[in-house]
Amino acid sequence: MRSIVIRLPRQVKRRLGRTVGSIRDAQLKTRYLIILHSAEGVPYREMCRMLGCSSSTITRVRRKFLQEGEAGLQDHRGDNGQAKVNEQYILELLEAVAGSPQDYGYPRPSWTLELLVKVLAGQTGITLSVSRMCRILKALGVRRGMPKPIVGCPWSARARKRRMALIEALERGLEPDEALVHEDEVDIHLNPKIGPDYMLKGQQKRVLTPGQNVKRYVAGGLNVRTGRIVWVEGTRKRSALFIALLEKLLVTYRDKRRIHVVLDNYCIHTSQITRKAVEGFGGRIVLHFLPPYCPDDNKIERGVWRELHANVTRNHRCGNMDELMRQVRRYLGQRNMKAAAQRRRKAA
Predict the structure, then answer these.
(1) Which of 129, 263, 301, 332 has fewest C-beta within 10 Å?
(2) What is the pTM of this model?
(3) Position 193 pLDDT exceeds 80
(4) Which one of 3.30.420.10, 3.40.190.170, 3.40.47.40, 3.30.70.270 gives the CATH number of domain 157-196+206-347?
């Protein structure tokens, strides 16, 4: 087999070389390169190392090229007949992945590749291998991840939609002498939040934890129009922390007649102490409560705290709370500077 010799005229080599540069299919490009390297007299072992393929692959490609020419480099599996995996199969697969095996009568609450193959075979009559199922899921962008725990909103979908429409209308019709912020609190733990990271093969990164956890709390208000966040810190998450934030908002937006605060239904936002404090602000602070258990509707939760954890608290190496809080302040301050620079660019 290794006596197969490929000889090509110079103009053919040039044409094949130009063709290789425009090929996106990795396997097809490898077959073209096998022929070009063979024509240059590159040894089998060197070619295997360069292209990452076996000697049997090189022999097979050479033989097909000698028999059929350049057409022999193409993948002819498309002529094998109708593909097993059709549009209906994909739709059934996506519906299954979005649900649970229990929707199909199995006691297991989470999917395995084997169970997906079995369920889809029953739904469509098409049986695939586990490896084929794995490739299909990868091509569809389906991944294994950590589900997000949530608490269902007790309101009806209609009531929730109505409340959100009122808040969105308030933001759109905001007067020049008014400001609107989304408010929320975030817990800062000395024990690091553990999250995904890149690691070397065969190794697992370790995150040192202090053992005894220490907590700090940050209450913040995000102006969704300017991107600026105003925040205060505290050692306890009580009404006093929230009131301190409202007082800082009054100072920050001293030129505004009214400050609208969009927030959740946490107890410190509705306590008697808070209500009296808001009354004492002379109508300058107006609270707008989101539907219960809908944290994704709070823009500071999505846009600030999530990124704060990703950039500061997740897998952190701080040895004490003072060091960790300095990093929290640095991140929030840099975020405000970036938001201000973006506003200046838009105004220019």
Answers:
(1) 129
(2) 0.69
(3) yes
(4) 3.30.420.10
